Amino acid sequence: MNTPLSWIKDYVPELDCTAKEYADKMTLAGTKVERFEVLDKNLKNIVIGKLLDVAPHPDATKLVVCKVNVGDVKADGVDAEGNVQIVTGAPNITKDVIGVLVPVVLDGGKVAGGHDGGALPEDGIEIHTGKLRGVVSYGMMCSVEELGSDRNAFPLAPESGIYIFPEDVIRELDLKPGMSAISAFGMDDVVVEYEITSNRVDCYSVIGIAREAAAVFDKEFILPKVEENGSDEDVHDFLKVTVEDADLCPRYTARMVKNIRFAPSPEWMQKRLRNAGIRPINNLVDITNFVMLEYGQPMHAFDYDTLEGHEIVVKTAKDGDTFQTLDGQMRNLDHTVLMINDGAKAVGIAGIMGGENSKITEEVRNVVFESANFNGVNIRLSAKKIGMRTDASSIFEKGLDPATTVQAVNRACELVEELNCGEVVGGMIDIYPEPETARSIIFEPDRINSLLGTSIPQDEMLRIFKKLELVYHPMTHEIAIPSFRRDLLETCDLAEEVLRFHGYDKIEDTLPVGEATTGRLSYKLRVDAVARTAAEYAGFSHAMTYAFESPKAFDMLNIPADDELRKAVVISNPLGEDFSIMRTQPLNAMLTALSFNYNHRNENVWLYDMANIYLPKSLPLTELPDEREQLTLGGYGSNIDFFVLKGVVEEIFAQLGVKDRMELKADCSRPYFHPGRKADIYYGGKLVGYMGEIHPTVADKYGFKSDARVYIAILDMPTVTEMATFDRYYEGVARFPAVSRDISMLVPKNVTAGDIEHVLMQRGGKLLEDFKLFDIYEGLQVATGFKSMAYSLVFRAKDHTLTDDEVNSVMKKILNGLNALEIQLRS
Amino acid sequence: MKDQLKKITEEALARISESGTLDEINDIRVEFLGKKGRITSIMKNMKDVAPEDRPAFGQLVNEAKQRAEEAIEKARNELQTKAMESRLAAESIDVTLPATKMRTGHRHPCQIALDEVERIFVGMGYEVVEGPEIEYQEYNFTKLNIPEGHPARDEQDTFYINDEILLRSQTSPVQARVMERGKLPIRMIAPGRVFRSDSIDATHSPSFHQIEGLVVDKHITMTDLKGTLTQFARELFGENTQTRFRPHHFNFTEPSAEVDVSCFKCGGKGCRFCKNEGWIEILGCGMVHPNVLSMCGVDPNEYTGFAFGVGLERIAILKYEIDDMRLLYENDYRFLRQF
Questions:
Q1: What is the mean pLDDT of residues B268-291?
Q2: Which helix (H) or strand (E) holds B173?
Q3: CA distances to A23, A608, B237 from B269, in Å
Q4: Range of the domain at B199
Q5: A499:B255 CB<8 A
Q6: Which phi and psi angles does B147 have, rounded to 5°?
Q7: Which terminus of chain B is more solvent-facing, meaning fewer CB atoms within 10 Å of its CB: N or C?
């Protein structure tokens, strides 16, 4: 919402503050000023000049030498009669226009921009006396572009050339040479842009903001007094209105104007519109725009003579109906879209846009002003459905005060008379079947104070309410709420009003008292933190990735068409296909992040991500999906391989207090992994995750070259969290000596280290304290189909020194077990 | 005999003082003081000494032995010290050579900011809780006093799965879930991922993080809210941080406010960082709306509460002077390693 400060001052005449003070105080009282623009911040020494003479330039055909009278202004080159010589190349300054008034910037003055209308320089452009092709020019005549404006705001300005004040404007403002051109243009003004919160519908209007400003600065607020005017005729004799759907149109008010006389609207109105960012068109259009800004009530004008049966019927469209709006577009409608019809056909989409068939042209003679109240939600949904959001619809959708329709239409009719724009027909059609009942809130100052933590006296509260036109009835202890304050419903709303004007900054800073609570992280969050820290100490950096991705990810990852993973939660209105499904696996996000780094030539990048995957319990979704947090470790580069990653996973479990030994099972189906370098990860017999080297064809799709190997491990955090423990117990340090034995074996190739370790653990019993693979070899000295492996075993008893017999007996069991795997001992 | 002893002793002392290695010293020790050493051996000639002189002679021999021992000990110490000195000298290194890099990972700036925020609120007695990211519209909107048809529910802003289920557009639904558990009083923060239909650019992301805060108890007031958030801002941005509460509107709180902190770059004087305003907006907050309390099963006549919501990315961007939000999700190691 953009509003010129001068317009606010029309209703708060005593308002006297700088733009900055205004912005600050309004903001702190809840009417947030986003920014303000001082229109003349780069305009200086620009006056009205009268063009007295235009003579050819001796040395340049495109330039002319002008004599301009600037009244009694003193400046370099201005003679005793107030005449000054100015050289210009503007095409519209010729002998034909001698006598016109133009804006003139004199020596030492400033303009906002160049004549070409390009981007405005930060500090404007200073103008000095100078020579143009040898002839002295003591200043410059200005175009609207040089004033920082454009032809949108000044439709009468020439396309290229000096602005010439129109006769009407000169007459209306009584312009004379020497007067300030800046104020003649209405640029001695500040345009304020507000962020209005959605609850304050009333502040989407100049009057609403002025009312707030009056309360903020404690000045009198003067609402324009509007009388119902018009001829002795009665509008009811000309027009019949029927509202068939009162739910969607709670109030419909209409008046009529006959014998429209089109003309430009007066400068005072154009100035208001211009500074509010609205292009002046003609008196009739300008009046509706003016009233829309002033009251926040959009109005529509229909061509009375095209309304069949001189009738208006408000009702919803039928499914499949189409309608041509006045921008020439065909619109598809359905039974929820409210339409304005005449006796035979639709003439407008209620609250959104009128129809091509009843458009106001300058041939129109008689018009109907519609000032209606529509259901905001319906307008919003209709505008969305039809695919156009107009100025009118964006206001209606906020849900307006039905009381305003009458004020606005009467204001418009008053302006019609004032601007001599036509003859207002007497009377008003006002269909308002269910008038709103007056609202009030019980005044409970103690509750307000106890909510705020303040002790604001009742008197101060009442003083604030009075400024806001909230009327206190001492007999009933009720505060009557004016209908324009649609946001005030209960005591907490009143509390906010009190606080806004008492001052948010004036209340104390306290801390909650009462029952003490224990600050803490949930168990899950504590586990997460340990796992994160372990990953970081192991060298992995924390990545953050998106939860949604493209369904193409499944193809990238070689995931078969019928795989469960493809059953993903789908977003119905995604940003695009690339963000359309909720991920069911974290591989794609990790590979995307690694690939980004790889493509940017970052070497040896190790990342981890801790975020959810979303597994639907059924599709389509009827209940919330299972959100499972996954810790994903991924890396590429010369210093990572399967076993480095395996070690990191082991360390994370160790940090989480998991005592079980990790078991990897390679017989898993994980199509995104290298078939010979993959595994499911088990702890204590439970599947906790999976890891592997990314399949070369998958890596290739993510842009990795064939020599780049990418490793990923994924841990299912809900499972990990169940196993994790923060309990630690001291187990004592060994007090009796250990006995160590090495075994060197010839192992059939298909027997894994895991198989051997399984035997060691199973058969080693309590006495086997530890074991370690210290050599593995395949090659020339080893028989084909075999590999050589060597383990060192450590035995120890807690309570005595082991004897050889004891160790031998355990060793025998172990060796028997190994024999069963067809392992031979090497001597 | 005396002369002989003197001669030998002198020779020993001379040899010791000339010796250059520990081995030589040991040899000298054996030669003079060993069992068959030359000084030791003199004692064997005692029988040649007149009996009355024997005690005095014995004493002389012992003195000689002691002198030799002391000299050896001294020489040995000196040699050892010298050996240590030369070893240390040989082992000296150029300490300005580059360090052997420890390979540790880096925490994401958003996580660092979150850890900070959690630390502050846990210290104030808040519990950290989480809620689902895919949420019922009931929790995301209805229970937060955002009725059907309200523009906040617009598809332009919210990602929907279907009519009932959506990607939460705020962490506020966790408020409703915690209140419904019915355990009072409540002091909680709920960090998490939220989703809004914004295209990716330097200041927007369709997915970001919020931290929701909620306190519900008897006699909670607006001044409590103000005091709590002022303390939070000081802990997070520094002791001299000023806060400014501006009236605002949120459906689920009344009164509501937006909170600005004094620009921590210029201290509030106005600079490029704060767009010359001296203030930087950091969060929204307010007193929990009575409709929200009662919809979540809390009696608004007995309990009041306050709530606030902070954008985590915004905190990280401000605190670590990150100039483009996209950096937070690209995971470029050159970016991550700076944290």
A1: 89
A2: helix B173-181
A3: 17, 41, 16
A4: 109-336
A5: yes
A6: -75, 165
A7: N
3-state secondary structure A337-372: CEEEECCCCEEEECCCEEEHHHCCCCCCCCEEEEEE
Is B117:B310 a contact under the CB 8 Å cutoff? yes
CATH of domain A235-431: 3.50.40.10
- The total of other beta-carbon atoms located within 10 Å of residue A616's CB is 20
CB-count burial class (<10 Å; 0-12, 13-18, 19+) for A578 = middle
Distance CA A596, CA A600 (A): 6
Residues of A in contact with B105 (CB under 8 A): 535-542, 606, 608
- Quick one: which H or E segment has residue A269? helix A267-275
- Please report, for chain A, the start and end positions of each structural domain, with discontinuous segments joined by +: 2-39+190-216, 44-184, 235-431, 439-506, 523-723, 739-825
Whether complex ipTM tops 0.90: no
Task: Give me the residue from A487, A547, A605 closest to B207, CB to CB.
Answer: A547
Let me know: does B200 contact B170? Beta carbons within 8 Å: no
pLDDT tens string A615-668: 999 989 999 999 999 999 999 999 999 999 999 999 999 999 999 889 999 999
Using the predicted structure, report yes or no on whether residue A362 has a pLDDT greater than 90.
Answer: no
**Residue A802 per-residue DSSP state:** P
What architecture does CATH give domain A739-825?
2-Layer Sandwich (3.30)
Q: What is the CATH number of the domain that holds B263?
A: 3.30.930.10
CA atoms within 13 A on the CB side of A196: 22
CATH of domain A439-506: 3.30.56.10
A600 touches chain B (CB under 8 A): yes
- Per-window interface: A 579-598 vs B, CB < 8 A: 579, 582, 593, 596-597
Q: Is residue B268 part of a domain?
A: yes
